[in-house]
Amino acid sequence: MIAIDALWAFSLIAGLLTVTPGLDTALVLRTAALGYRRRAWGVVLGIQSGTLIWGVLTSLGVTALLTASHLAYETLRWAGAAYLMWMGGRMLLATRRHSADEYPKTIGGRAENAARTGNAARTGTGAGDTLFGGWHQGFATNLFNPKMGAFYVAVLPQFIPAGASHLAAGVLLAGVHILLAVIWACALLTIAEVFRGRLQRPSVRRCLDRITGTVIAAFGLRLALGE
User: Where are the bilayer-spanning segments (predicted)?
Assistant: First the structure.
């Protein structure tokens, strides 16, 4: 099986990738900061489901075909870019349309929860504080990112020893990546919980939506430009 030193080396690479600020971090923080606990965990689970799929596909050699096929890669790249720009654009557009009273200051109560659910639907984040809604968003965001596939194609084979089961080794390495990502997500969710009072101020929430929307749309634009 995989040697311990190889696992440590892969953990270092995966850990650096995980803590580097990017699309996943922005999406988890934004969702948690708005007070959507279940949805935030759904986003985390969705992202890691996508990571597991990429790991399995890479182990089976499917992603190698993706990177080798220009048409397949370009199709996924443009689909991912369109999805990210659509999601980011919805967030940015919503902050321009809505006034401060549409960002409720409290979490409890039917009126506040209804307002939050309506606001989530208008900003393109799904059906409010639901686990499945977050999972769907996180999964689609991860799976529509061909650079995740390219990363796994470039890195994973280097840590799979000759003679070992590619599928078993690939799932093990993806599992390490997922474990590190979940630990990092727990830290992000804890930070969001500690500063929840400040983060849920209407002005801060609008600012957070604008920042997250810009980050997501920018990732989509970079993907479309092939950078």
Answer: 6-29, 41-66, 149-168, 174-195
